Amino acid sequence: AEIFLKDREGAFILVNRPLRDERTRLGVDPADRKAHQPPELIERLESQDRKVLEEAATVNDEAVIQTASGPRIKRIVKFPVLDENGEVVAIGGIGIDITAERAARDAEQTARRELEAIVDNAPLHIFLKDRDRRFILINRARREERSRAGVAPTERDSYLGYAPETAARFATLD
What we know:
Layout: E1 2-6, E2 12-15, H1 17-25, H2 39-55, E3 59-67, E4 70-82, E5 88-97, H3 99-121, E6 127-129, E7 135-138, H4 140-148, H5 164-173
Antiparallel strand pairs: 1-2, 1-5, 3-4, 4-5, 6-7
């Protein structure tokens, strides 16, 4: 994690070693808060600083930050540092690299969409029930077949429309 403390004018008072080392790898002065970032990001970060100062608010954000190893997604938390009178005297901040977390989440969402497409387009009746026999997933083939039988696809009694012996067999499988 990168940890920093800024004065009311936005100048760094303190940066921890990871932040200092990263800025050194970029070839910029660790105290130069505007170095090596696009102007729109600098404006957004400065706007957050103003909110912390003016409202004594904590700000949470995610931003793509240019680093020596390329762009990284950082979760940034900024918070007011108060004096004994409750006045904001500085801005504290923590930046955490969440690039891998975001990539994993995106990969999971992609895999889920692909799996849902396969399940929904399979020419088989696919469904999933919880322990109380409530449907939590029903594919298109199952929904269409139940609709033709005149039964709501999510009907808890999923055996409506079946012959009694078939329904009994299904019940034992549940």
